[in-house]
Amino acid sequence: MTAKLLKCFLIILVISCTNPAAKKKAEAREALYPYPQYIQSQIAYVDSAQLGIEMVVQENGKTIDSGFIDRQAFRKLALNFLQPDPNQKDLRPEYEENSFKDLTLNTITFSITTKNPRLDLQRADILLNPDTKQVKYLVLKKQHETEFGYANTSLMWRHNMNFQIATSIVGKDGIEHSKLVRVVWDKPYAELRN
């Protein structure tokens, strides 16, 4: 009788391991590349470094503001890169990740995508240096509805140097409005003063 129970148990185990639904559920639990933790480390780097933080804002191609910002304003803008986190328990099943070596850019790229058009984060590309495995660039694509129309946002973070947030809104009037916020911190205070 014990041999029959063991045989039944092994058959159930094999079936559950080869079951596509069980495999998909197991894959859904695997963590995606943790880029929000990378952004947190970059925020900590800027907080500790003796660097000035410069911001330039353009609307429809024209500069409307430029100057230095404090670390609190920097952190507020950086939040755009942290939320939403596709590794959150309720979001993780909505995303899949692929990786490949890009010989043209000399990077290893992790690409996180969703097929759900209702989600804010549509794509995240994390480009790593193939030798050091250090992030070189992070590029996010987001979309959402606003009171003015439909917004597409592209966010790019360059390691230890700068980030930019480019938003394009097609208003209810059909006219496109664009806004670009660029934040730079890779120059010491002495360089910025000259």
Provide an overview of this structure.
- The chain is an alpha+beta fold and 194 residues long.
- It has one domain.
- The protein has helices spanning 2-18, 20-29, 35-48, 71-82, 189-193, and strands at residues 54-59, 62-68, 95-102, 107-114, 121-128, 135-145, 149-158, 162-171, 176-184.
- α3 (35-48) packs antiparallel against α4.
- It is globular.
- The protein starts with a helix and ends with a helix.
Describe this structure in a few short sentences.
The chain has 194 residues and is α+β, with helices and mostly antiparallel strands.
The count of β-strands is 9
Summed over residues and divided by their number, the pLDDT gives a mean of 86
Percent helix, as a range, is 25-40%
Low-confidence stretches: 5-16
Instruction: Characterize the largest beta sheet: strand count, sense, and whether it forms a barrel.
Output: 9 strands, antiparallel
First-residue to last-residue Cα separation = 86 Å
Secondary structure layout plus pairing:
Layout: H1 2-18, H2 20-29, H3 35-48, E1 54-59, E2 62-68, H4 71-82, E3 95-102, E4 107-114, E5 121-128, E6 135-145, E7 149-158, E8 162-171, E9 176-184, H5 189-193
Observed structural traits:
nine-stranded antiparallel β-sheet; 194 residues; alpha+beta
